[in-house]
Amino acid sequence: MLHKSTRRLPSLIALRAFEALVRQGSTGRAALELHVTHSAISHQIKKLEEELGVALVERQGKGVQLTAAGRQLSQQVSLAFEQLRGIHRTLPSSAPSGKLRVACAPALLARISTLLERFLRNYREVSLHLMSLEQAHQGADMVISFGDSPVEGQRIAALRDIQYFPVCSPRLLNGSEPLRKPRDLARQVLLHEDDGFDWNRYFLAAGIPGLQVRQNVYMPNAYLTIRAATAGAGITISDHILAGDDLTQGTLVRLFDIEFPAPHPYFIIIPPHADHDLAKAFSDWLLRELEMIERVG
After folding, report:
1. Is the pTM higher than 0.85?
2. pLDDT value, residue 63
3. CATH class of 163-261
4. CB of 156 within 8 A of CB of 291?
5. CATH architecture type of domain 12-88
6. pLDDT digit string (tens) for 245-266?
7. What CA–CA distance (Å, rounded) separates 236 from 218?
8. CA geometry: angle at 262 spanning 261 and 264, to 5°?
9. Domain with CATH 3.40.190.10 in the chain
10. In sequence order, which residues have a C-beta less than 8 Å from that of residue 279 and are 6 or more positions away?
11. Which residue intervals of the chain bear CATH 1.10.10.10?
């Protein structure tokens, strides 16, 4: 039986992870659905068990084996989430409609494209146009920039607590040059989307300022450094949002435990000409998705 003494509402993020785990039947498929890592799902299940004071999952063998308490909670949570999913069908239709043009950097653009299914399912009358930042002047209704932007409009500062860390292909991790500690980076190729600022900050955080490395490669954006890293070309700095899908799928792995904060938040900018209701609906949805990934990731 679940403890009746638990008065506080359990973490909704943990409940969402538990519901996905039970419905999908495995940690891997639940992680893919929620766009987080396997370990993030396991962490949330453990957190939920601690909050409720009972074991929910038996950790033996493959698949999902629920305890008696887990089966009881599963029935209640599954019903609750199904009711939540159906809310929009019982309410008067007030969803905004029309065309929305969203401009942002390539790496974030790629990430957003993997999350769109839930937005499109609830906003069936929206025609969505995803654009590069360079196209922002071509009538963009929303601009998402890392750090501030000269674009005029209402500003929403978002994702203030992003943490950066090195990532690489598992092939590189298990290659001829071992990667057991940050100083081992000296024998590697480092991939940069800037002039070296992020890697220098990592070296400071790791206690190895000014580390000289085998080779440096500079690229115009984070999308290219992430793609090069998945191909085994080198090691780049990233985060759970931009590299989340690759971390979940195992095409990238995180190196070491040291991380450091991103220098800026993201800004969501809604220009004066935009349909405010539609832009606000999209920005609210996007913030919920990305903040969940960053917290759980």
Report:
1. no
2. 67
3. alpha beta
4. no
5. Orthogonal Bundle (1.10)
6. 899 889 999 999 999 998 888 8
7. 10
8. 130
9. 98-160+265-295, 163-261
10. 100, 141, 142, 270
11. 12-88
